[in-house]
Amino acid sequence: MLRSFFIALSQNKQMRAFSERSTLGRRMSSRFVAGMTLDEALKACEDLNRQGMAVTLDALGESVLSEEHARRTGRLYAQMIDAIAQRNLRANVSLKLTQMGMDVDPLLAEEVVGELVEQASRLGNFVRLDMEGSGYTEATVAMTERLFHKYGAAGTVLQAYLYRTEQDVERLLEQGIRIRLCKGAYKEPASLAFPEKADVDANYLKLAKRCITSGVFCGMATHDERIIEELKRFAIESKLPKTAFEFQMLYGVRRDLQRALVMEGWGVRVYLPFGPEWYPYFMRRLAERPANLIFLAKNFFRN
Ligand code: FDA
């Protein structure tokens, strides 16, 4: 119930406008959001690189409703890809299609993202198209395919809670397209997604094993310790090199686990979001673990 409450809040425009402007909101979100500016994000990225972790940078934003805003976001991402190259960071970028004008015109989004994938490809980098609600799944997969075949440097995210994902995994692996596998963070109907968490977890594990033995470099995005342990055991038993795939986790979530995996020699990439449009992202993190609210409040009053 709390999950649905926070997901509903994440879509509330008034709450978003109010919260993003408030100092209190910014302070609360700072556990999961690396800063308000690109410079702050790059510093956090350098710090994680020093700790042996790769990064994927995300300039927060979604549901952009004007061409001007979409192009402005595209320019920010171009700046991010350049900065990664200039500072020689171990990082790539993650973006959302609705942030690039998908709801204004899908052709606009493809043009903006295409320019970024072309730039990343030229600089030896990579662009990850994040996955949003199920209304965007097919369009995101199909756009990733077109951009991958044109420029190479694109991959996307698949969500283990969707029934269709098993087929999408095969569809993308067949073409050599890199997958980030996650459980899924949006509210979906039982006609499209497993309603029971146990079924999502079982599907995740099954698809993760398929991804890491595919020969395509994939990202296993989860903080689920039971799944991580099982994947490590499976990888060792299958004699996979530790470089065959990477674990991916969110900035500020299970930092102990991130460090332990690095110490054991596994690849870890941290998803590092930044920027003033933090509200929907932050609410989805609370939806995943409502206890975070108590944790954040305690820390807030302690500081
Ligand atoms: P699960 O929710 O079962 O949690 C397992 C354990 O992890 C919890 O018991 C808790 O200990 C810890 N944990 C999980 N979330 C936490 C949180 N917010 N705060 C504190 N502890 C937490 N989704 C999507 O729909 N599209 C996308 O593109 C992406 N991209 C993405 C990138 C990366 C790198 C990650 C790690 C995740 C995503 N996600 C995503 C989010 C994903 O779908 C999912 O909602 C979260 O990762 C939570 O699921 P877990 O696999 O961690 O398991």
Please characterize this protein's 3D structure.
The protein is an alpha/beta fold. It has two domains: 1-33 and 283-302, no CATH class; 35-274, TIM Barrel (Alpha-Beta Barrel). The protein is 53% helix and 14% strand. The chain has helices spanning 2-10, 13-21, 23-29, 38-50, 67-86, 106-122, 137-151, 165-174, 197-212, 225-237, 255-263, 279-288, 291-302, and strands at 54-59, 91-95, 127-129, 154-159, 179-182, 218-221, 245-250, 268-274. It has an eight-stranded parallel barrel, surrounded by seven helices. α9 links the parallel β5 and β6 (218-221). The protein is globular. Bound molecules: dihydroflavine-adenine dinucleotide. Residues 130-131, 157, 159, 182-186, 221-224, 248-250, 253-254, 271, 285, 288-289, 292 line the site of dihydroflavine-adenine dinucleotide.
Task: Report the bound ligands by name, code or SMILES.
Answer: dihydroflavine-adenine dinucleotide
**Number of DSSP strands?**
8
Pattern of helices and strands: HHHHEHEHEHEHEHEHEHEHH
Helix content: 40-55%
Which spans have pLDDT < 50 for at least 5 consecutive residues? Answer: none
- Mean of pLDDT: 93
Largest sheet: 8 strands, parallel, barrel
User: What is the overall silhouette?
Assistant: globular
**Spatial order of strands in the largest sheet:** 1-2-3-4-5-6-7-8
Radius of gyration based on Cα positions: 18 Å
**How many domains, as an integer?**
2
CATH fold-level label of the largest domain: TIM Barrel
Distance between the termini: 30 Å
Secondary-structure class = alpha/beta
Pathway: Amino-acid degradation; L-proline degradation into L-glutamate; L-glutamate from L-proline: step 1/2
Protein name: proline dehydrogenase
Domain Proline dehydrogenase: 41-296
Catalytic activity: L-proline + a quinone = (S)-1-pyrroline-5-carboxylate + a quinol + H(+)
